[in-house]
Write a structure and sequence with these properties.
six-stranded antiparallel beta sheet, 30% strand, 5 helices, extracellular matrix, secreted, 676 residues, Jelly Rolls, 42 strands, mainly beta
Length: 676
Amino acid sequence: EFLSLSTVKGSQKCELNCRAIGYRFYVRQAEKVIDGTPCDQNGTSICVAGQCKSIGCDDYLGSDKVIDKCGICGGDNTACKVVSGVFKHTLTNLGYHKIVEIPEGATKINITEMSKSNNYLALRSRSGRSIINGNWAIDRPGRYEGGGTMFTYKRPNEISSTAGESFLADGPTNEVLDVYMIHQQPNPGIHYEYIIPGDNVISPQLLAQRRPGEPLNGQLGMPESTNHEDEDLYRETDTYTGQSAGTFPVIQPGRFPSHQPENQVPAVQTPRQNREHNWKQIGKTECTTTCGKGSQYPVFHCVNRITHEEVPESYCDSSTKPIPEEEACNLFPCPAFWDIGEWSECSKTCGLGMQHRQILCRQMYANRTLTVQQYRCHHLEKPETTSTCQLKICSEWQIRTEWTSCSVPCGVGQRTRDVKCVSNLGDIVDDEECNMKLRPNDIENCDMGPCAKSWFLTEWSDRCSAECGDGVRTRSVVCMTNHVSSLPLEGCGNNRPLETTPCNNAPCAGKVEWFAGGWTQCSTECGSGTQQREVICVRKTEGNFDVLNPYECSYLEKPPSQQSCYLKPCGSKWFHTEWSTCSKSCEGGFRVREVRCLSDDMTASNQCDPQLKPEEKEPCNTQDCVPEIDENCKDKYYNCNVVVQARLCVYTYYKTACCASCTRVANRQSGFLGRR
C-alpha cells in the first residue's frame, strides 16, 4: 500500500514510498513522483521536480496569495464586513427568544451554540414563515431552504458530543431572517457571524472567479485574532462534504500545470535567498485543549542569522523550513462533568405528568469523552433526572342535568342524570378525553320506602310427577315484603298462586288385580314433593292380564296411589316477584322485579348459582312516542334558535316567547335520557 501524507516526513513527501500490508517498514520505489502530485493534506501544495511547492489561490507556484475573508483571491478584506458577536443574555421565561437578525444579502452565515444544552435554535423569515424548529415542533438535523439560500442544521450526538447546535449557510439571503432560541435551561451563549458587503465592494464577476476547491459548507477561515474558545466554531466537519471547515479538497495529479502558460503574467520574483537567514523556532502554538491531552506545534520564523531579528519568510529557503510535528500537551485529565440527556416525552398528554432524562458522569481525555463513576462528579450538583410537565389542560367532567325521578313509586328503583366530558374550550368531547376514574355517576339506586308484601315464586319444576299418565309439576310459593311493586299495603291477600300444575306423559299400561305399579320419580329434585303410581284391578289369565272395573276389587284394600317424597335438601334457590310497571309509556323504558336467593327455611342466602339468576331489569314499551301538538305553542320571534343556544329556555318569558323551539329541545333531551 502507498503511504499517506500524514505518515511521511517533509523531505520525503515527493518520494514514491510503499509499505507491505501488515508490516511497519516501507521501501522507496522512486526518488520523486510525477509532477503535480499533491504533497499536503489540504491539496494546496504539489510536487515539482521532487520538491513540495506551495500554490497560491491564483494557481501560481510559489505565490503567497490567499483567499481573504470576503472570498477574494489576494483580497485585502475591505470588500466586505464581518458581523459577529455572542448572545449571552440571561433568560427567565420558557419559549422563543429572538437572538439576532440576519439582514438581506448576508453570506457565510454561522449561528452556533457555544456548548450543548437542552435549548434549541430556531429560524423564521420576516414574513412569518417558519424555516427550522417552528411552532414548538423540533426538526431533524439536515438541510432546509429559506431566505434564498440553503441552511445546514446540525445537532451533535447528545451523549458522545459536548458541541451545541448550529445553523450554517453560504448565502446570500434575499430577505431578512430572525434567529430565535427555544429557551428551556440557562443560556450557554450563542455565537453568530455573517458577512455583508462593505463600502469597497468588488465586482461580482471577481467574486465568481474563485478557485475550485474552496470550502463547500460556507465556513470562514480562522481570523487572525481568534482565541481557542472560538476555534471550536471552525472545526466542525461538514455533514455532507465530509471535509473539515476551511480546507480544500485534495488536488488530483495533473490538476495544476508544471509550467507557466504564455498568456499569464509571471509571479513576482522573491528576494534572493542566501545563508544570512535561516529558520528558527520561536515558540509553540497554544495547546488545543486546557486539559485531557491536547496537541501543539512548534512555530518557525525566518530570522537574521547574526542578529536573530525576524525578517519576511521570503528571505529564507522555503524548502528548508522544518515541518512542525505534533506534540502532546496538558496531559492531566479534565474535571468530570454531568452530561445531560434530552428530556423524554411527557407521561401525560394533558394535565400534570412526568418526564425523565439520562444523567451521566463524563470526563474528557485525548479528545474522547468517557463515562466514569458518578463519585467523580460529587463536586458538582447533580441535575434532576425527573421533572413535572404539562402539555395542555385536561378536559373535565360536567353534570349537565339534575337527577330524574325514581323509576318506581316505592321500594328500590333507579334514577339517572346527564354527565358529559367538556374540553377547556367548552366543547363536548369523547369520554376518553377525561379521567374515567373521576367520572361522576350517571345512574344510581333510589329507595322510595317500603312497599306491600308480594308472592315470591320459583320456576316450575322440570319433571312431571308421573312417568306416564296424568301427573303434576310443582313450584314453591312464599309471601314476603316487596320493594319494587305497587301492590296495596294490606299484604299478599288470599289470591295465592298455584303450587301445582297438571302434566301428562302419555298413557300407562295395566298390570295385576289391585296391581300397584312402580312409584314415579319425585316431582321435585330437592325438598318436599309427591310420587304417583298406578293402582288397577286386574285379572290374570294364561299369559295375559285382563283389566277389571274397580268395583270388582272393592272388597280389597286399595294400595295408595300417591305419597310424599323428599330426595334431599334443596339448599338455596332463586325467588322473584312479578314485573313492575314500565318506567315509560313509549320510546323505550324499563321494568324491574326483585330477585332473592332463599335457603330451605326461606331465609336470605348467597349460595345460589349466579348464572341461573333471573333478570332483574328488562326493556319495555320500545315503540315511538306520538307527540301532542299544541296549537297555541308557537315561536313569536324569528331568532328563537339563539334563545335555545344560550340555554334561556329555563326562564318563563323565553319559554313562552319561543314555545315551539324550547319544547323541541325539551323533547329531545327527555328522549335522550330515556334511551340511556
